[in-house]
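Suppressor of fused homolog
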Amino acid sequence: MEGVRPGGGLPASGPGSGSGSGSAPGSFPSLFPPGLHGIYGECRRLYPDQPNPLQVTAILKYWLGGPDPLDYVSMYRNLGNPALNVPEHWHYVSFGLSDLYGDNRVHEFTGTDGPSGFGFELTFRLKRETGESAPPTWPAELMQGLARYVFQSENTFCSGDHVSWHSPLDNSESRIQHMLLTEDPQMQPVQTPFGVVTFLQIVGVCTEELHAAQQWNGQGILELLRTVPLAGGPWLITDMRRGETIFEIDPHLQQERVDKGIETDGSNLSGVSAKCAWDDLSRPPEDDEDSRSICIGTQPRRLSGKDTEQIRETLRRGLEINSKPVLPPINAQRQNGLNLDRAPSRKDSLESESSAAIIPHELIRTRQLESVHLKFNQESGALIPLCLRGRLLHGRHFTYKSITGDTAITFVSTGVEGAFATEEHPYAAHGPWLQILLTEEFVERMLEDLEDLNSPEEFKLPKEYSWPEKKLKVSILPDAVFDNPLH
């Protein structure tokens, strides 16, 4: 990223420069890219007195081979709204997730009626500290990190999504270590010549608030944050010095609202990228037709493109109650100092790294299994109660997709359409994709037996749970087990 400068990312003849363009005051010269023009016009509507904001700009543009997808991040000083108890803050706006140019250099142009590029830009509101005369630049790099995730995975963000970051957003000792996403309270959707652009605001949250969003849903936690001025207030302004969660600020009311929301609504989180694996205990592990691969010659069978599409379509239509794509947590691997959930890829979150079919799809059969062994690392295992209480007890599904291989594990409840696991055959596998059907009675029993997963500080690994009459075993294992390529 290049240094900060006034209007640094704009063309020399950009808006407000008055540099011989012959344009009337407030108009835009013809050389100004139309997509950029539209977003900048919305910024000018909010900040007419800041025509040349400070900007952070990519040294080498993404379309020229640079690593940063955002061409620019503009930084504005917002005076807040004392009447609404909104403090003064810095307002950051990205340029680059939408189509700025319309010439296919970054995004494919698909018409004016649909989304422009990925259809959104990111914003962020950071509380201004007393005596602070210039905005900190670290939010710009944070936004670049999220943009890299979007470009590499092609997962778009939606209001209510959460991002597991597992690190203070500003690399300090702050408790604000994760993010929720919501509509920006001031910026309106923009119609550009290349499609529509909406504005999604990043909201920094504590670990306890992230977990509550996972157990319930992001929108519910965002509404709670709006009611607590110290935790964001109506415009959801991030204060990196906030030392208390909403549950500590208002212990009884907030937790009661979350518990009631989980009981009433269940969880909107339908899947995560995770460290997980499974074994078919129905046959010896040395069997050539191991549960994780079918060998033809020396080539292991992996998820084919058709397998991958079936998983996506089943989750999107047959199994997905909420019909909204869900962002996998961004964690585990670090790249350029930022957490990403995988190595660079332009593929969908459920698409295998080796999705090119090694053997024809027709040779892969769905198998009923008698007994299975599920393996999770501690972070993934801690989400099992969420899966059971927040999803299956509400007639929904939950999927773990391995970040270290082709494995996928989907838990489904009875009556779910599109599942190949049934009450008669509750364990079924299609290649490396395992489905497990659990009855409500068994889910309630599992929740009792897995209660200690809610207390990770008292947890010692490895930990094993077993239900012999159901022929099901679950192990919680150290991360190193899953990092071993021979696992």
